[in-house]
UniProtKB/TrEMBL annotation:
SMART domains: FolB. This is 7,8-dihydroneopterin aldolase. One of its GO terms (biological process) is tetrahydrofolate biosynthetic process. Belongs to the DHNA family. The keyword Oxidoreductase applies. It catalyses: 7,8-dihydroneopterin = 6-hydroxymethyl-7,8-dihydropterin + glycolaldehyde. Pathway: Cofactor biosynthesis; tetrahydrofolate biosynthesis; 2-amino-4-hydroxy-6-hydroxymethyl-7,8-dihydropteridine diphosphate from 7,8-dihydroneopterin triphosphate: step 3/4. It comes from Bradyrhizobium yuanmingense. The lineage of its organism: Bacteria, Pseudomonadati, Pseudomonadota, Alphaproteobacteria, Hyphomicrobiales.
Length: 122
C-alpha cells in the first residue's frame, strides 16, 4: 500500500530560464509535491519521528530549487526530486510539478510547467 503526503502551491522566487532577464531578475514559480510512502506506522503511533516532516520537505525543496540557476524546469524539478529521495529514506517515490505562470511566451495562458515522477531504486 502506498500513502501520499502532499504540499501544494509552494511559491518560490528563483532565477531559472534560458533568457537573460529570467536569470537576472527571476520570477515566481509554484511547486506541488506528492510524496509516496507508507503512513501506517505514524497513523498508529501519532509520532512525528515515524513520518516525514512537512517543514523539512519544504526546506529541502526550497534549497534544491533556489540554490542553483537552471535553464530548464526539467532540471530544476529533477534537483528537487533527487534531494527529497536523498534526504528522506521513508519516501518511495516523489511527483514534482513545477508551474511557471509568467513564462516568457507570446500568448495568453493560465499556466505552463512540467510534471516529473521519480522513484527510489530497490
Amino acid at each position: 500500500m502506498t500513502d501520499t503526503i502532499f504540499v501544494t502551491g509552494l511559491s518560490i522566487h528563483a532565477r531559472h530560464g534560458v533568457m537573460d532577464h529570467e536569470t537576472e531578475v527571476g520570477q515566481r514559480f509554484v511547486i506541488d509535491l506528492e510524496l509516496y510512502t507508507d503512513l501506517s506506522e505514524p497513523a498508529r503511533s501519532d509520532r512525528l519521528a515515524d513520518t516525514v516532516s512537512y517543514a523539512d520537505v519544504v526546506a529541502t525543496t526550497t534549497a534544491a530549487f533556489k540554490n542553483t540557476n537552471y535553464k530548464l524546469l526539467e532540471r530544476a524539478a529533477g534537483a528537487v526530486a533527487d534531494a527529497i529521495l536523498s534526504h528522506f529514506p521513508r519516501i518511495r517515490a516523489v511527483k514534482v510539478t513545477v508551474h511557471k505562470p509568467h513564462a516568457p511566451i507570446a500568448a495568453i495562458f493560465d499556466d505552463v510547467g512540467i510534471v516529473l515522477t521519480r522513484s527510489r531504486h530497490p
